[in-house]
Amino acid sequence: MTRLNNLDLELAQELGDFPEDDLDIVFTPKECRTLQPSMPEDGVELDSHVRDCVQMYTREWLIVNRKSQGNTDTCSLKSKGSRKDFHKTLQKQTFESETLDSGDANLQAGPQQVHAFPEEASRTTLAPSDFELRSLLPDPRLENLLQHISPEEFERQNEEARRTNRHAELLSLYPSVDEEDAVEIRPVPDRPKEHLGNRILVKLQTLKFDIEIEPLFACIALYDVKERKKISENFHCDLNPDPLRGFLRSHTPTIDLSTQARSAVFSVTYPSSDIYLVIKIEKVLQQGEIGDCAEPYMVLKEGEAGKSKEKIEKLRAQAESFCQRLGKYRMPFAWIPISLTNFFNLSTLEREMPEAEGLNGKGSASDKKATGLQARRLSERSLNSEDSYPVSNFKTISLTINTFFKQEGDRLSDEDLFKFLADFKRSSSLQRRIKTLPGTLKVEISPAPENLGYCLTPELLPVKPFPENRNRPHKEILEFPIKEVYVPHTIYRNLLYVYPQRLNFANRLASARNITIKIQFMCGEDPSCAMPVIFGKSSGSEFVQEIYTAVTYHNKSPDFYEEVKIKLPAKLTEKHHLLFTFYHISCQPKQGASVETLLGYSWLPILLNDRLQTGHYCLPVALDKLPVHYSIHSPEKVPSQTPPIKWVEGHKGVFNVEVQAVSSVHTQDNHLEKFFTLCHSLESQVTFPIRLMDQKITEAALEHELKLSIICLNSSRLEPLVLFLHLVLDKLFQLSVQPMVIAGQTANFSQFALESVAAIVNSLHNSKDLSKDQHGRNCLLASYVYYVFRLPDPQREVVKPGGSAVLAESRYYTFGRTSAVSVGSKLLQSRVISCSNPDIAVTATDEEVKNIMSSKPIDHGSSRMSFCVEGTTEVPNVCASPRPSNKKHFHEELALQMVVSTGIMRESVFKYAWFFFELLIKSMAQYVHNTEKQDNPRRSRFSDRFKGDITTIVSVVTSEIAALLVKPQKESEQAEKMNISLAFFLYDLLSLMDRGFVFNLIKHYCNQLSNKLNSLSILISMRLEFLRILCSHEHYLNLNLFFMTSASAPASPSPSLSSQNSSSCSSFQDQKIAGMFDLSAEFRQQHFLTGLLFTELAAALDTDSEGISKVQRKAVSAILSLLSSHDLDPRCSKKEVKIKIAALYLPLVGIILDSLPQLHDFTLSDVRSGKVRAGNLEEERESASAINQNVALAIAGNQFNLRSSGVSLVSLPYRQSATLGPDTTRNLLICFLWIMKNADQNLIQKWIADLPSMQLNRILDLLFICVSCFEYKGKQSSDKVSTQVLQKSRDVKARLEEALLRGEGARGEMMKRCRIPAGNDRSVGLNENLRWRKEQTHWRQANERQDKTKAELDQEALISGNLATEANLIILDMQENIIQASFAVECRDNLLGGVLKVLVNSLGCDQSTTYLTHCFATLRALIAKFGDFLFEEEVEQCADLCQRVLHHCSSSIDITRAQACATLYLLMRYSFSSTSNFARVKMQVTMSLASLVGKSPEFNEEFLRRSLRTILAYAEEDADMQATPFPIQVEELLCNLNSILSDTVNMREFQEDPEMLMDLMYRIAKGYQTSPDLRLTWLQNMAEKHTKRKCYTEAAMCLVHAAALVAEYLSMLEDRNYLPVGSVSFQNISPNVLEESAVSDDVLSPDEDGVCSGRYFSESGLVGLLEQAAELFSTGGLYETVNEVYKIVIPILEAHRDFRKLTLTHSKLQKAFDSIINKGQKRMFGTYFRVGFYGSKFGDLDEQEFVYKEPAITKLPEISHRLEGFYGQCFGEDAVEVIKDSAPVDKRKLDPSKAYIQITFVEPYFDEYEMKDRVTYFEKSFNLCRFMYTTPFTMDGRPRGELSEQYKRNTILTTMHAFPYIKTRINVIQKEEFILTPIEVAIEDMQKKTQELTAATNQEPPDAKMLQMVLQGSVGATVNQGPLEVAQVFLAEIPADPKLYRHHNKLRLCFKEFIMRCGEAVEKNKRLITADQREYQLELRKNYGKLKENLRPMIERKIPELYKPVVKVHSTRESFRSHSFRKYDAQTSSQST
Q: Which end of the chain has a smaller Cβ tally under 10 Å, C or N?
């Protein structure tokens, strides 16, 4: 650290120069639920095991804390707490998108009245609008706009304004990094605590029967039916009224408060629907069966008079006497089950179960997130009823139960109970089989509140809080979980439960009938030795000496259901036993006889071989008094006595009893028991041989046995192992360092102990039932290391008798004695060296050791770390100083054992290295603390051999990681975990050991990995996570010597590569500045960790291998989280410090600039990366809206007009390697902005000044992307996003236009800015498997928004508004820097365009007023400084600028409007003064306005008008300009703009009537016939409107017209044979296009300045328009037209030799033709209706007829409903009427106050000759201008009549233009009518029928159903009337009128053909039918035969006159012609009447 002395010492200190010791040892008391911890009884000498347990449960936690923790690393993520009120410090930013336009209200109402328009929009007079404009009041002007001020001063003022009121911490505004990447968070494990399940509070309120005659007692417990298990202990409760309780006074001398509880807290760990709360009710024993005793309860009722009252009195007196005599005995009486299904809300259970099972459920370890939470949830749940309680969902429920089940005396066992419950669950009524008793039980069940006051634990200890005012306490009831619960013991608990089950005295003497058992816990054989350790029942003493079981009347082999709960003494001896005494109780009082008659005894010793006895026993019963010392033996094995003991049934077992213990002292596991016993025999003085189970162990065998027991530990069951985990591990660690001398030999257990630890760690991790945290660490072990582990006690030398204390010379030798040699050779093979094992060190090759130990850089490229060379270059002589054995240090021992471990142990140690690493760290910290080495220099804290071991361990783990990664997939997760563990280990070592040493380890790690791994993405990913953890160190900045930036650092001996290469640098100083932005070797050497991190990032961004995108995300988020931590670190808040820190990150700028082409381009909408995968053409076409990327590519190619300056990103828009997803890009860009904000601005300016222009352009491109990236999305986006993601088709045309525009400047960017749906670019990145975080609010998906409150949304919007503003201001600062730095050197022409492009883009985004004010100021400075240049060179930019500024002129916010007006005025003024004629700017402004008006529906013309007036005011007030024609020109321009605005006001009114709107736009466009640029704009506006309405064909037509317009102008400008010859060339697409040729050179010459200067008037523009049109035709399904369009495009492409585009074009054509083949007849092109308007209300529309084109399959009611609804809104619903028929309308009969609409369906009509050309379905649907509809009528005015009087009128309409056209309705210009006579109608019908038959018969493939339908209609019995009737009417006889002969004959021939076709059809059907249709076929044949017969005479009869010689025929034909199909006029109609 010597380097620092002369440096910025102050700064270093300020950041808290490394404190010498980071770690702090803290003892925190264990929190205890009870007032006093649970302890064994006083005054007993405890044996060592119990003492250890108690000490374990009561000692404090030992926690190693970091002193400066929380400064940075966790802060960044926990900052949510501190950021809670952060938003209150922010200023609200105003965004236009969020202010409601004042005009909105009246805009929404829709058109109130319909104006008619003159056909031509008049543009001649300007006076009225001029006057209108002047009548307005202008906005306030900016006062200093016209002052003379130097540009430099102007810039200075701007900068000053920008610098004020800025937000200091950029990243505090940015959503925090995704937790998935935040590997550096080590979750603090949960504190070990007592396990509690879901807690339910059950309160008993009343229990009474219809008669109250005696005391009753309740006993409650939970049972699980499915598991057939009792899952809680009993709760006894007494609800008797005082008088009844008084009956028992003599038996209950004392009543303790704790026995009066009436509410209990039950705990359920595994809730299910099978759990029942069973309440058993007992009464005092009396004479009689249960049934007899219950009888009165069934028949009597309290309060009845007369006899029953007497009965009750009698019964009560009886009961009282029984109570006095038999008060201490009980009998079973009744019971009731309550199902708890409803209380555990099982729907939540499904969700919660995995978490509840974190204890031992199936919580899968693979799901990182869930399992991390599991343990936490559980432990929280234990004390917390709020968040994760399945039961929390139920409210308190009060139950009242009115029936009880009577107990059956012979069915009292638990087995019987489970059968009952199973039945009850099935049918919920046991009434049929069991008698019920009426009564009332009220219970209240609720979730137990978190801190229930005044509560007692199962041991009756008071729980906190325990208030003074004591009423009845609550009791906690112990749970017996159905499955294991894996939670280590943390409190002392020692309970025994005894369950007598059955007694069989069936063959016993008669006296045994009413049997009870007295149960006692004895500490000796004398009766006085009964211990008061049995918990009492209700209303009695807390502890009693004996308990009696309930009596079943007259039953010789009764079942018992008693539960006896005993508090076990802490010290048990062989004298302790359970004594059972059996009595017969005589219920009837007999003279002189006692109540009890002794029947016999049995007993059970508590200990067997020093172990607690539990389980099921079947004991014999002795009849006589028991012999002395009986209790030592078990009753089955009592040695024969004299006199012999008399047994019931000759010593057979007749008494079944079960004993269970719940104890945190007795392990109840053989392996553990043996291990603990042997450990204690070592610790305390014991006499050998010791007894263990049934074996005796001598001192000699002790070592062997102990080793065996250590090895077997892991074989014990998992549950006891977990329960005693803390103790087991403590003992093993004690053994590992405690030198033992056994029988004169030093025994070393170290290796075995640690092997056993490894095995236990392994099995805990492998258990499916235990939860892990997100790093895969077992939660139990994690909390053990964190809280429980402490260094084993200072070792006592343990010398066992039998040999003097021989001091072993060294631990190394003792270890070496057995295995060192073999281990040594193994180690050599594995090339791993431990410096702490002498046997090994001697044999090691020196070279190898040197390599590992020396710090020579094997690093690629980075030179040696100058200040932290720590390793020693020669190996110290390890063996020189053997250490005395009593100095064994745990950390050294552990490290040594890790190094020399082999086999399975080695595998476990490295697989679960985290555990051993944390042990090492914690023990090292304690070692340093205990030996007070903090003051020592770190270098000498630990021995060299220990350092050697650490080096080896790190090396081994690293190679282990590499080895795993080379294996197949499933190992990589394991490697990742090990990698993270290793990183945390080194992170911790930085706080303990010498940092140079640790840095060396890091370097070795990096090198070692890169040598072993070949997959780049895995390698980078591993190293990244590793570095990310290290960099989260709280002293990260100091570790990186951040204050030694190269400005102050000594120069490197050789200049870095980058500085040698950059030839543009002028001096050494410049070289250094340029070098600061590069990742140089020097940088990496000086700032070690940062250098490594940047290297990884650069590598990740540079490669393109599989799976790299995830790695890139990791890399970027690592750096982002680092920067966030600096922003949130109070130590870094000073500006000087920030500058230093930013300097540390400067190389990042270089890396970001290099990765520019890979960034996600937010300026494109989601077409690019979301939907469309290039090259996959099939899929793209499916969604109509997603425009094919390839088209865009083709359009964007920029081939034709290479005017763009500097190759910028935007001119190469689709670089294919764009690999970064939007989120990664956004994170990377925010890092860039952070550096730019915090770095030294002078430094940045110097750097920019020396950059080549190529680099500067890259910076500008980067800024351009930044602008779009940080655009404000607003709160509204929450609603918008979802709809807009769906509405992908929103603007096909717009996107294409964009792509087209890309080649030539930023107008495209800008035009589309207004259209990109808010938030749409979010949906882009979903292909990167991104998870959305809940916190990332302002980028979050819409569907998550619903659950947020309004306040939260507002707060998010506030923060994101500030972020957008701050980000854009940083970008603006950067642009100012570029302008100043680069223009100071020389005017870099192309840069200005770049800067403007970024500014224009930012104006196009939704910006806050704050930003806009500064942005406009910068713009004005630019105009003032570079005006000439701007107007001459940057024409495109200028146009874009006009449109943007104009847009802001219509803003509703005054400040913005004022700024925009001033800017626009300056723009005009400077353009005038530079060229003295600002025609071009005028043109651009006019076009901008036109496009603004046409495109953006929400702009407000009122504000725009006011702005125009303000500009006029500027012009009038501008003194300098008054002498020039400028003011007049401005006024002229403004008036013109005003008149355009008037048109748009009209458009507003028709917003709801699309047809009218289109007509209007059509007229406006027509009005611009003389101004091609504007006409083009309006055609495009129309196209956009059509696209929105999904009228793709019309949109395409608009673009074709636009293209024709462009072609006209191009052919005027230049004569190229490959170009179309004006609009004529387009007539194949549509004859309508010829309209565009009206504009010829006599109207306007294209050379005039400002005319036709738009970008479309070029060849690329023409191609672009046509390709867009083709795309839309294709979307609309007109594939044939696509071909016509490309016929014009292809010659142009061929002329340009653009083969890439030709390929694309032909693939498009192929697709179009394929579609024609595949879709053929299935396409639908449109439905047409004639709509007539009648009534003066319609104004100009009155008596107009139109043909409307509607989408295919539109039904008449649909269009009718739409028009009626719309005009109903305009004129009032009553005023509109739809005329239902299609007959001619008589105006005179209409009501003049109404509006009438007549709608008729029409079909395209073609003459015969046309049909020759119109072959295909498409040809019959395209280019239509004639339509026909028919109207049936009869001569008497009815529409329909008999066949003989049915006429028909055919009307043919001709429209003005052919469909499809640029609008969807076209005027009708001609109408013709024809009348058909009845016979002609009949002929038409029969022809139609015959055609149908023919079609159905010849259909391929045949369609039987269709054929049968048509046949049925022709020959079916029911419809014979059809054809037959026609024949009978018209063919029965020859007509009288010779004129009708022809018709008669024609009809006859029709029938002839008809009957023939019927025959064919019947035959065809015969071939098609299935067997089941045979009858149907016969029926058809029969009908056909009938029809044929009936028709034959008529068909065969010919008219003789028609078959006369040829000559005469002529005249009849004449007459026929003159009559038929004549034009219909008034005369004929008058004749016909």
A: C
Exposed e or buried b per residue across 674-693, where buried means at least 16 C-beta atoms within 10 angstroms of its C-beta: bbbbbbbbbeeeeebebebe
- Which residues are CB-neighbours of 358 under 8 A, at least 6 positions away? 371, 374, 375, 377, 378, 771, 779
Q: How many CB atoms lie within 10 A of CB 1814?
A: 16
Q: How far apart are CA 1027 and CA 1877, in angstroms?
A: 95
* Residue 1783 burial (C-beta neighbours within 10 Å; 0-12, 13-18, 19+): middle
Spatial CA neighbour of 1581 closest among 1595, 1567, 1601: 1595
DSSP-assigned letters across all residues of 169-218: -SGGGSPPPPGGG-TT--PPPPPP-----EEEEEEEEEEEESS--S-EEE
Q: List 612's β-bridge partners, or say none.
A: 607
End-to-end CA distance of the chain: 122
Mean pLDDT of 555-573: 93
Closest CA relative to residue 266, chosen from 350, 196, 335, 343 = 196
DSSP state of 1337: G
Digit-coded pLDDT (tens) for 1221-1263: 888 888 899 999 999 998 888 888 888 888 887 888 889 889 9
Q: What is the DSSP string of 1900-1969?
A: SS--HHHHHHHHHHHH-TGGGHHHHHHHHHHHSS--SSGGGHHHHHHHHHHHHHHHHHHHHHHHHHHHH-
Looking at the DSSP bridge assignments, the partners of residue 499 are: 658
Output the pLDDT for position 827. Answer: 39
Query: CA–CA separation, 920 vs 939, rounded Å?
Result: 18
Between CA 524 and CA 527, with CA 525 as vertex, the angle to 5 degrees is 100
Predicted local distance difference test score (pLDDT) of residue 965: 86
pLDDT value for 1595: 93
What stretch of H or E contains 1856? Answer: strand 1847-1859
Shortest CA distance to 1394 belongs to which of 1374, 1420, 1369, 1368?
1374
CB atoms within 10 A of CB 422: 13
Cα(262)–Cα(474) distance, integer angstroms? 7
Both structure tokens of 1154: 């290099």
**DSSP 8-state secondary structure symbol assigned to residue 107:** H
Residue 1477 is predicted with a pLDDT of 53
Q: How do strand 740-742 and strand 798-799 relate by DSSP bridges? A: parallel
Residue 1426's nearest CA partner among 1383, 1480, 1376 is 1383
Render pLDDT for 824-856 as a digit per residue (tens, 0 to 9): 334 334 434 444 444 433 333 344 334 433 433
Which whole number is the average pLDDT over 678-684?
83
Closest CA to 727 of 660, 679, 769: 679
More confident residue, 769 or 353: 769
What are the pLDDT digits (tens) for 772-808?
888 888 999 999 999 999 988 765 544 444 433 333 3
As separate numbers, helices (DSSP H) first and strands (DSSP E) second, the chain gives 67, 38
What's the confidence (pLDDT) of residue 264? 95
Run of H or E including 1375: helix 1350-1385
3 state SS of 1669: helix
Q: How far apart, in whole angstroms, are the C-alpha atoms of residue 1019 and residue 1007?
A: 11
Decide if 1243 contacts 1195 (C-beta within 8 A): no
Neighbour-count burial of 1350, counting CB atoms closer than 10 A to its CB (0-12 exposed, 13-18 middle, 19+ buried): exposed
Which residue from 1585, 1658, 1646, 1657 is spatially nearest to 1862, judged by alpha carbons?
1585
| CA dihedral of residues 642, 646, 649, 654 (deg, nearest 10) | -100
Rounded Cα–Cα distance for residues 609 and 1253 (Å) = 92
Fill in the DSSP letter of residue 1284: H
219 pLDDT tier (thresholds 50, 70, 90): very high
Q: Which pairs from 52-56 meet CB under 8 Å and 24+ separation?
A: 52/676, 52/680, 52/727, 52/731, 53/489, 53/492, 53/664, 53/665, 53/727, 54/492, 54/570, 56/726, 56/727, 56/730
Q: Is the model more confident about 1801 or about 1174?
A: 1801
d(CA 1531, CA 1515): 8
